[in-house]
Amino acid sequence: METVLSNTAISAAILIGLAALGTAIGFALLGGKFLEASGRQPELVSMLQTKFFIAAGLLDAIPMIAVAMGLYFIFVSPFAGALGG
Amino acid sequence: MAVRSPHIFIVRRLLLTQLAISIFFPLAFLPFGMNAAWSALAGGFASFIPNAYFAYRTFQYSGARAVNAIARSMFAGEIGKLALMALIFIVLFKYQKTLNHGALFSGFIVVQLSVWLTPLLSNRKPNSSI
Questions:
Q1: Domain count of chain B?
Q2: Chain B contact for A71 (CB, 8 A cutoff)
C-alpha cells in the first residue's frame, strides 16, 4: 500500500511538474513574441491580443488536463482505493 | 478599461461555445443518472470559469500604449486560470464525495478541447448580435 501511495505521489508530481514546465516554456515564448511584435507594429496590438488568447488556449489545454489528472491522483487516490485502502 | 478590440468577437464566440458545451454536454450523461450529469456539468464549468477569467484579464486593457499592462495582465490571468482550476478541482474532490469521476473528466476535457474549434469559429463573419 505504501508503495502504491508513494508511486502515485511521485507520478502526480511528475505529471504536474512537466505540465507546468511545458506551459512555462510556451508562455515565455508566446509573451516574448507578443511584446516583440507589438513593439514593432503597435497598431496591431488588439489583433495580437486576440491571437495571444487563442494561442494560450491551445497551448495550455493539455497541461490543464494533466494538472487536473494530477490533482485527481493526489486527492482521490484511485489506485489505493482499488487495493482497498 | 473598456474592451475595444475589434477582434474580440472570436473570443466571445469561443466563450459562448464553451458555455453551451458546458451546459448541453451533461445531457448526454442523463441516462447514467443525475449524479453523472451533475459531475459532467461541474467538469465543464471547472474548465469554463477559469477560461472566462483568463479572457477577462487578457482583454482588461487595450491600446498600443498599454502593451506592458496587457502583457502583465495576461501572465497574471494565466496564473489565475491555473490556480482557479486547481482550486475548483480541490474543492470538488475534497467536499463532493459522490462525484462520478469519469463524467467529471469527460465534461472537463470536452470543454477544454473546444478551444480547438476556434479556427472554425473565426472563419465566419462577425455577428453584431453576439
A1: 1
A2: yes
Dihedral sign from CA coordinates of B102, B104, B108, B110 = positive
* Chain A, window 3-62: residues with a beta carbon less than 8 angstroms from a chain B beta carbon: 23, 27, 31, 34-35, 38-39, 42-43, 45-47, 49-50, 52-54, 56-58, 60-61
Judge whether B46 lies within some domain.
Answer: yes
B69 burial type by CB count under 10 A (0-12 exposed, 13-18 middle, 19+ buried): middle
- How far is the C-alpha of A40 from the C-alpha of A44, rounded, in Å? 9
Please write the tens of the pLDDT for every residue from B95-119.
Answer: 888 889 899 999 999 999 888 877 7
Active site residue A26: no
Instruction: Residue B73: give the domain boundaries.
Output: 8-121
> What does the block give as the cell for A27?
508562455
